[in-house]
């Protein structure tokens, strides 16, 4: 198994790839130039099984090992950028106004390309590696569409793995946990329907603004008084809109927000209780509500066996002390969860150093992380398929 020194020779080349991708960000499913770049590089490595156009612009490439027959494992990198005006002031800043790689997907793509180059040269494993380059992670639907287009079945993938950079974690460190790793993402809308009128005669009206305020306060008790204090559930109201004039009480008020949870039962609780609470409060004031609840992304849940493989691969690269295998889960969401629902696997964080946070206009992927990410992928393949 390899230490990071085995991958230093790839860092300069991977840095060139990464910075090119950073200068040319694309959004959602419209990552045509990025997918073409990825495809060209994969072909230049001598990989002859490359399929494009999956989920519009996704790419899957297969590398066969030379150590015998074996299963196929999937390694996933996301390719899309964010609709943000970049303020990193780097020489390789985005050339596209209003678009930037503000989450490090340029780095994720470059690391998987680096691993592809190494693995295509060595092929020191049994079975097959499926390299999955995914569009539209930020849209929250790219992974789901790739699964719906049956990439697991088409390519015979038995396990699947993902990786994401983490600002604030030191370069050369990794973090992972068994079980829930990131939260599910849901959204809700509540339309409070009152009775409008003149603001000087509130007794003749049913004020939806006051009712909406009561609902917002009421929702705060669902977590604090309705769930186990040790459970992980967040209900956040993020939109509140009503009225257009100083002297008119409006007919309606709109409330919207997000729900994050690590367990399916907590999503069920949130959906049922947000509606019940808002309906009861509105009814008490003589109003009514319309309620919509959308389940967007499931929780990202690592499986035990695959988590152990990931930990082993990372520790062989950087040592035991640099791998935290009991990191606390985050309630941010990740659409890789759809792939983990389709196949067992694991998702790991890689340190990005003391950079700005992701989704920040000053963020930039740290190129010093590249050999660590490349090395992790290679070690993971040789760990999972070398047995």
In short:
The chain is of the alpha/beta class and 387 residues long. It folds into two domains: 4-181 and 299-384, Zn peptidases (Aminopeptidase, 3-Layer(aba) Sandwich), CATH 3.40.630.10; 184-297, Alpha-Beta Plaits. Helix content is 34%, strand content 26%.
Shape: elongated
Can you write the helix and strand succession as a string? HHEEEHEHHEEEEEHEEEHEEHEHEH
For the sheet with most strands, the description reads: 8 strands, mixed
What is the helix fraction of residues, given as a range?
A: 25-40%
The CATH class of the largest domain is identified as: Alpha Beta
- Could you tell me the strand content as a percent range? 25-35%
CATH superfamily of the largest domain: Zn peptidases
What structural category arises from helix and sheet content? alpha/beta
What does this structure look like?
The model has no long low-confidence stretch (mean pLDDT 97). It is built from ten helices and 16 strands. The protein folds into two domains: 4-181 and 299-384, Aminopeptidase, CATH 3.40.630.10; 184-297, 2-Layer Sandwich (Alpha-Beta Plaits). The strands form four sheets. The chain has an eight-stranded mixed beta sheet with strand order 1-2-4-3-5-16-6-15, sandwiched between helices. Strands 10-12-8-13 form a four-stranded antiparallel beta sheet, covered by helices on one side. Helix content is 34%, strand content 26%. The protein is α/β, with parallel strands linked by helices and 387 residues long. It has helices at residues 11-23, 32-44, 105-122, 142-148, 151-154, 208-226, 264-284, 304-318, 337-342, 370-384; strands at 49-54, 58-64, 72-78, 128-134, 157-166, 174-175, 179-182, 184-193, 197-198, 233-242, 248-249, 252-261, 288-297, 300-302, 323-324, 345-351. The two termini are 12 Å apart. Helix 8 (304-318) crosses helix 10. The longest helix has 21 residues, at 264-284.
């Amino acid at each position: 198994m390899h230490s990071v020194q085995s991958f230093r020779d790839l860092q300069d080349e991977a840095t060139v790839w990464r910075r090119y991708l950073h200068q040319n960000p694309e959004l959602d499913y419209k990552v045509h130039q990025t997918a073409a770049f990825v495809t060209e590089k994969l072909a230049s490595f001598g990989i002859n099984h490359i399929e494009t156009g999956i989920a519009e612009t996704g790419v899957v490439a297969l590398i066969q090992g030379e150590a015998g027959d074996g299963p196929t494992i999937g390694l996933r990198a996301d390719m899309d950028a964010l609709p943000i005006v970049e303020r990193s002031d780097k020489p390789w800043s985005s050339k596209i106004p209003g678009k930037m790689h503000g989450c490090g997907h340029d780095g994720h793509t470059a690391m998987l390309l680096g691993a592809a180059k190494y693995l295509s040269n060595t092929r020191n494993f049994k079975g097959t590696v499926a390299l999955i380059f995914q569009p539209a992670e930020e849209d929250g639907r790219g992974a789901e569409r790739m699964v719906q287009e049956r990439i697991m079945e088409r390519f015979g993938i038995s396990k699947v793995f993902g990786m994401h950079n983490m600002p604030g974690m030191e370069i050369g460190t990794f973090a992972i946990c068994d079980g829930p790793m990131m939260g599910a993402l849901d959204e809700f809308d509540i339309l409070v329907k009152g009775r409008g009128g003149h603001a000087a005669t509130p007794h003749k009206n049913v004020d939806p603004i006051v009712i909406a305020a009561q609902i917002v306060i009421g929702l705060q008790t669902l977590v604090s008084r309705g769930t186990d204090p040790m459970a992980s559930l967040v209900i956040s109201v993020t939109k509140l809109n009503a009225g257009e004039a100083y002297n008119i009480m409006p007919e309606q008020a709109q409330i919207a927000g997000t729900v994050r949870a690590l367990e399916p039962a907590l999503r069920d609780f949130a959906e049922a209780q947000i509606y019940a609470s808002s309906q009861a409060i509105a009814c008490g004031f003589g109003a009514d509500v319309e309620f919509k609840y959308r389940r967007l992304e499931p929780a990202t849940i690592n499986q035990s066996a695959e988590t152990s493989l990931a930990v082993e691969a990372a520790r062989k690269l950087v040592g035991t002390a640099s791998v935290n295998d009991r990191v606390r889960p985050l309630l941010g969401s990740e659409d890789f969860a759809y792939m983990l629902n389709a196949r067992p696997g694991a998702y790991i964080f890689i340190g990005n150093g003391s950079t700005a946070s992701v989704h920040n206009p000053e963020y930039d992927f740290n190129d010093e992380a590249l050999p660590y990410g490349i090395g992790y992928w290679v070690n993971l393949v040789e760990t999972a398929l070398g047995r």
